[in-house]
Structures are given as C-alpha cells and as structure tokens.
C-alpha cells in the first residue's frame, strides 16, 4: 500500500501553504550559501558546512536556518552568501570569513563591509544584489526562485515561491485548450535552440491520433559553454516538474520523461528527490490534487552524446538505441517516442510555464520583441569580467549583456566577438554589438540563439582556431548516419588544420565555403545542417584573419602554434633563469641576472617559458 | 546485483537498455564482454545492438578504470582559456591520451565536452571534486598529490602490518 498523500485537493495545498508561511518565524535568520557549479568549484561546500557548524554550536536563542541554494548568477564573485533578513549580499566568501559573518551579521545584524560588492564605477560598496550592475539590468522569470529556495525542499517551493499554485489553477479553473491558448498568447518559443512555438507543438500533439501520448523534458544540455538548464535543474527542480504536469494536462499525457545529461549527476539527484517529494505530496501520480488527471515522470540519464540533444535522437536513446536522428517529415508530435504523439520541450521552456499560467500569457508577451517573447537565460562566459548566469528580456542588445551586465572584456583587452548557439552557432563581431538578441536577429547574423551560451572572445582569440575547435567537436559528435555530415565535417576540419599549421593554400577559403554550403543543405538533422555555421560565420566576419594565416603564414591573435614566435623583452627580463630551466629543448640561454634570449631555430613554440615567466618578460610576436 | 536482478529492476523493458547498462557499469566498474553477452541473452536483444549502444555513447567504458578518475573539461570556454595545454602537459608527463589509464593504474584521464562550470574555466574534476581556474602546472600538482596520497596510504598500510607483525613476535 502506498502511503497517504499529503495534498489531496487544491484546498489541501492552499492550507499547507498557509501553514508553512505562518510557521515561518520572521525573526529567523537565514543564511543562503550558493552551491551553483561556479561557487562549488570555489569552495562553497566548506563555507556552508562551517555555517551549519556555527549555528549548531552557537548558544543564541535566535532561530537560524542554513540553506544550500542553487546558482545565484554572479559566479565570478563566488562563493556567494546571502543573509536574511535584509538580504545582505556577500561575495568571495572563504572559509575564514564565516566566523565573522556569523558573529556580526547573523547574530548582531551588523555589516561586514569588506565582503560587500564594490561597484567598480562609483567605488561604493553595496549591500544588496539589486544594486549591483550585473543584476540591475536583469529580469527573472525562469530563474526567479534560483538562489532563494532550497532546491531539496518542496515546502520552500510551495511557501516562498507560490509553488504548484499554477498547477492548481490549471486543474481547477482551466480546460486543457485554455492552457494551450494561454501559452499561445504568451508567444512562448522553445528555449532549446529551435525556437519553435510551444503552443503549436502542444496543440498538434493534443489533436494527434494515437495513445498514449508522451511528454519529454530535454535536459541534455550539450552545448559547451552553456549551463542554464543545469542551474535550473539543480536550483529549482520543482518549477520544471510543475511546468511538465501542467503541460501533461494540456496535451492529455500520462507519461513523462526527463532526459538529463550524463555529466550532470547533481541534476539527476535533485530531480529525483523532487519527483519523489511530488509523488508523496500527491502532485504526481494518480488523480493529481484530487482531479481526474494522472501523470508521472521518470528520469533517464544520457549516455554522453551531443547529438542526443536533437529530438529524434533523444527519443531513440530513450528507446534504448544508439542516438541516431531520423528525418522529420513525420513530426514527432504525431509520431515520436515509441511512434506515439510526443511533445518535447527544453528545461527552460518548462520552467517558464508556471509563470505564464499564474500571471497570464499577456503579461509574459508584454516582455520581449515582436516575435520573441519573455526572457532568456544566458550563460555569459569567456573573456568577460563578470561571468555568470543572466536572464534578460528578449531584445536586450549584445552590448547591454556584455558591457552593462558583464562589465566588459576582462583585463582591458579588445572585444573581438561573441559566440552564441554552441557548435551550431556563430561568432558575432563588434560591428553588431547593438543588435538585439532574439531568435530571428541572431539567425540573421549567421548565428543562432541555441540554448543560451554566450561566449565572449577577445583579441587573443584566433577565429580560425575557434572554428577548428568547433569542427573538431562536431566531428567527434557526428553520429555517422548521413554521409554529408560524417564525411563533410572531417574534410572541412582537414582544411582548417592545414590553415592553422601554416600550410593553407589560396582557394582554401572558397573550398570551405562550398563544403559548408553542401553540408548544411544536405545533412539529415540539425547537427549537420548547422555544423558549418562556426566556419561560415568566421569567414564572413573575419575573412582577413583566414587570409593572413594562408598568405602570410601568421596568426594575428598569436594563438596558432608555429605562426608566431616567443621573444624575451630584454628591458623586462631580470635574468632569473626560470625560463631557461623550464625550456624542454634548451633553446634559452643567458647569464644569471642578465637578459636571456631564445634561439628561434631550437624553439618548438611550446609556450612553457611564456607561462612560467614571473615578470611577463616573454612576449608573443 | 547480478545482471538478472538488474534487468528485473527495469521489468525486462528493452527500452531501458541504456539505464541497465549504466547500472552494470556502476556495479562492475566497466562493461565486461562476458556481462554484455549475458545481458543480451537475458534481455533478449541482439548482442550487436548491445555493442552498438556500448560504443556509441561516450560514457560507457569497455576497460577497467584507474583508482582515480580525472576528468578534463574541453568545453569552449575551457578551451579558450587553455584546456588543450593542460591536456598536452598531462599527456607529456604521464604518457596517456584522454580515455587512457596510467600504467600504474593511478588514474584514468577523460576529456568531456562541458561540465557546465564555465564561470571558473578551465575545470578539472578529480573523483567528483571540481577544481576551477586550472593551469597546466596546478593540474599536474593535483595529480602529483594523488600519487603522494597513494604512496602514503601504501606506506601507512605497510607500517600497520609491520607493527602488527612485531606485536605477534
């Protein structure tokens, strides 16, 4: 016998929410420690444990709650700790800082000035996240509760986030068609890359013949440089589950799957816990909230194949086969998983659904551009000052994202390009910094929205090399089913390798263009169709860089080995001898305390001296 | 768990082939040929399909791994910030390529596409622990730490047995 459900009706849910909210002591001090991947890599776990220990050992009568929360966004300044009440925002908190924060802020409501964020423009230290330029220009819908609620606590989601109220509204006050109408009014488009209208997918699937109908959440976030979906899965799993349950009611499905990337074990754990709790509460399973609707979700871990982000490949993988896509002349909404009508949406798309139902499609549609509504989460990374997770209204310009939010290029270097859309996307140069970011604008620029990776590149990035990197990636990840992709990508890669080795010949660029066009026109799935984007977009905007490699055998960004050399600046060199000892081929000579020199005929351009020199006396020329 | 029990856990659903194989790998460390043959028979799927799946997905291993797992992120941002140099230095120092295991079975090196910790790139994961902002040198230092740890454990173990032996004498 299964245990008694905790929530049997909408009334029960609201009663529970009231109880939880009333049970919250407003004088309770809450310490929220960000455990997102950025903060975790900087030691947030240790910080969290010290806060727990401090609270345990303290003799104070004040109630203290220590929470491990999901990604807060400003990874650059992690680990981030926020103390309530007052929402005091501390950044770069290390283990030795814990005692001071605990004593001063938690126990005595005083501020630890030195751990506050300092606005680089005004030099003023600010206490709240909203005052930080990075957060000021953002608008959060999908990430609203991220960093606030404890992702392992369904009670937190219900009490603080108003969780499952959209589901209650949908099940009791809305017909399935009305839900689809609302999503249509919102103009929600798939956040996974394609940008297909979500409502249209749902409606086609609802109207399609065949039973059962399946519903899938694509959590196979494969684009390198993107971690938006990971942040939602690990920071607010119930938002995804709630969106999926609402969707299942709208299309008439009883079986859902979440396909999570193999590299994200914590996402699997969070979702698994979330599903377990939701079942116990009666929010998943038979007769959800006392309604006639039943729906359950299971999790499948991916096997580590990029192509499985493609919907038909993902479905093949769910069926226990190799992830090979099929042609889509029969849409998956009619015949998808197990040849039944299937709706597949990405994590972020599902996470937007509760807000649309709660606040209405009209409100959602009031944000964004004409054809791209709402907000989009981006992972802003690369050579930018403030790396992290940002959510902005569609139509925000690249400049606003990179400069106002991101704080510009790191180290005062020159901005060169921003890469969006992962390996299927392209590089957008500085001339288009003022372009608004939405689905159609990015496609016009020869790139694409993709799932939301935004990688900033500076003057030190060689565009030919980056194109080579993506093709190398795609060559490994091509499933091999169709010839243009399987054979075309290695041929393009071969030419790029030649060029970056200084063996390029006149005519190579034209060959790349012809091959790229061929591969994109004749490949079976989106992986192949977009595989040439990184090459074609860099040729389009940085053709002269290709030409310099080919004609002058020189890499202007000084990244391609062999197409630049290392020299010691005699004015800076102190003659410490470190480079001499580091050089694996004994190409460096010089007496102690006098400037050293590199014998170019022996130098293999390995760069070991360049990395080791403590005085940055070694230069690339 | 035996292969039979693992298959039963998934109600002999052929569609669950991948999760079953993931469980086998978790249980036995890698996918031994013998186990795969057994699986094909019990689940009643062609062995060729089992092998197709085993070789298609990057996360399946057909050989045992080393004592430690070293995962090097090769995502775009890590690459931009020098992950390829890290891979090169590891190869030079230990004579292994990604996918390989050191001769002394100390660690298995894996290269993955992106671990979603781009904000602290380049990232190296050692036995599940994330190390951010890595350089070739700092990574080698972490790896040297692994061998030191092993040596210490070995000598502590030796020490323990010799004291015991002394006592017995």
Protein model, in words:
With 621 residues, chain A is an alpha/beta fold. Helix content of chain A is 40%, strand content 14%. In chain A, the strands form six sheets. Chain A has a five-stranded mixed beta sheet with strand order 12-11-15-13-14. A four-stranded mixed beta sheet of chain A has the order 2-1-3-4, covered by helices on one side. The longest helix of chain B is centred in the last third of the chain and has 33 residues, at 136-168. In chain B, helix 3 crosses helix 4 and helix 6 (83-94) crosses helix 7. With 169 residues, chain B is an alpha+beta fold. In chain B, strands 2-1-3-4 form a four-stranded mixed beta sheet, with helices on one face. Chain B has two domains: 3-56; 68-165, Glutaredoxin (3-Layer(aba) Sandwich). The termini of chain B are far apart. Classes of the chains: A alpha/beta (621), B alpha+beta (169). Chains A and B meet through helix 2, strand 11, strand 15 and helix 18 of A and helix 2, helix 4 and helix 5 of B.
């Amino acid at each position: 016998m299964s245990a008694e459900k905790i929530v049997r009706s909408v009334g029960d849910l609201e009663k529970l929410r009231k109880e939880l909210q009333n049970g919250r002591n407003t004088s309770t001090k809450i310490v929220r420690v960000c455990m997102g991947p950025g903060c975790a890599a900087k030691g947030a776990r240790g910080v969290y444990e010290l806060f727990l220990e401090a609270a345990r050992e303290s003799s104070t009568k004040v109630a203290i709650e220590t929470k491990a929360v999901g990604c807060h966004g400003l990874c650059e300044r992690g680990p981030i700790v926020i103390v309530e009440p007052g929402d005091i925002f501390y950044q770069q908190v290390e283990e030795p800082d814990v005692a001071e924060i605990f004593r001063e802020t938690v126990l005595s409501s005083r501020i630890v000035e030195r751990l506050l964020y300092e606005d680089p423009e005004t030099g003023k230290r600010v206490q709240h996240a909203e005052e930080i330029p990075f957060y000021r220009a953002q608008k959060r819908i999908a990430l609203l509760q991220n960093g606030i609620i404890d992702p392992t606590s369904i009670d937190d989601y219900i009490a603080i986030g108003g969780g499952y109220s959209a589901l209650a509204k949908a099940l009791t006050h809305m017909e399935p068609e009305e839900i689809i109408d609302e999503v249509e009014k919102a103009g929600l488009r798939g956040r996974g890359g394609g940008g297909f209208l979500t409502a249209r997918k749902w409606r086609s699937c609802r109207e399609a013949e065949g039973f059962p109908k399946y519903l899938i959440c694509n959590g196979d976030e494969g684009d390198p440089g993107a971690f938006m979906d990971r942040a939602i899965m690990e920071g607010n799993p119930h938002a995804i589950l709630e969106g999926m349950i609402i969707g299942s009611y709208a299309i008439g499905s009883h079986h859902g799957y979440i396909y999570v990337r193999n590299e994200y074990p914590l996402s699997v754990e969070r979702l698994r816990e979330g599903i377990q709790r939701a079942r116990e509460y009666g929010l998943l399973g038979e007769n959800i909230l006392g309604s006639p609707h039943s729906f359950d979700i299971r999790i499948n871990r991916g096997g580590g194949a990029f192509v499985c982000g493609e919907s038909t490949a993902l479905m093949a993988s769910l069926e226990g086969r190799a992830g090979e896509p099929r042609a889509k002349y029969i849409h998956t909404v009619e015949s998808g998983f197990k040849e039944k009508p299937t709706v597949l949406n990405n994590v972020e798309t599902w996470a937007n659904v509760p807000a649309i139902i709660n606040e209405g499609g009209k409100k959602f549609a009031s944000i964004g551009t004409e054809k791209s509504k709402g907000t989009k989460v981006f992972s802003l990374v690369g050579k930018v000052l403030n790396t992290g997770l940002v959510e902005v209204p569609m139509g925000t310009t690249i400049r606003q994202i990179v400069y106002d939010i991101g704080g510009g290029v790191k180290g005062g270097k020159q901005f060169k390009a921003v890469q969006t859309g992962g390996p299927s996307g392209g590089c957008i140069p500085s001339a288009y910094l003022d372009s608004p970011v939405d689905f159609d604008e990015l496609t016009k620029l020869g790139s694409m929205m993709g799932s939301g990776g935004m990688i900033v590149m500076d003057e030190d990035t060689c565009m030919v090399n980056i194109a080579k990197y993506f093709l190398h990636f795609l060559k490994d990840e091509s499933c091999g089913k169709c010839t243009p992709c399987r054979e075309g990508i290695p041929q393009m890669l071969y030419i790029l390798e030649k060029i970056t080795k200084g063996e390029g010949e006149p005519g190579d660029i034209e060959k790349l263009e012809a091959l790229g066009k061929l591969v994109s026109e004749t490949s079976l799935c989106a992986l192949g169709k977009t595989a040439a984007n990184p090459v074609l977009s860099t040729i389009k905007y940085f053709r002269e860089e290709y030409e310099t490699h080919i004609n002058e055998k020189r890499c202007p960004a000084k990244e391609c080995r062999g197409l630049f050399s290392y020299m010691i600046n005699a004015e800076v060199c102190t003659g410490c001898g470190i480079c001499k000892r580091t050089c694996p081929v004994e190409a460096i000579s010089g007496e102690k305390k006098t400037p050293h020199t590199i014998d170019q005929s022996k130098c293999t351009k390995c760069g070991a001296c360049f990395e080791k020199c403590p005085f940055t006396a070694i230069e690339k020329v | 768990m035996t292969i039979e029990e693992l298959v039963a856990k998934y109600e002999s659903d052929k569609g669950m082939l991948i999760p079953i194989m993931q469980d086998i790998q978790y249980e036995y460390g890698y996918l031994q040929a013998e186990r795969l043959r057994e699986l094909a028979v019990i689940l009643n799927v062609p062995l060729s399909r089992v092998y197709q799946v085993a070789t298609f997905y990057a996360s399946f291993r057909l050989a045992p791994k080393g004592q430690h797992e070293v995962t090097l992120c090769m995502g775009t941002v890590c690459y931009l910030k020098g992950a390829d140099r890290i891979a090169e230095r590891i190869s030079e120092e230990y004579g292994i390529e990604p996918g390989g295991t050191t001769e002394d079975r100390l660690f298995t090196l894996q290269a993955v596409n992106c671990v979603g910790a781009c904000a602290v790139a380049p990232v190296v994961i050692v036995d599940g622990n994330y190390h951010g902002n890595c350089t070739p040198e700092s990574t080698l230092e972490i790896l040297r730490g692994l061998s030191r740890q092993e040596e210490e454990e070995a000598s502590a173990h030796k020490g323990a047995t010799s004291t015991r032996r002394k006592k017995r004498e």
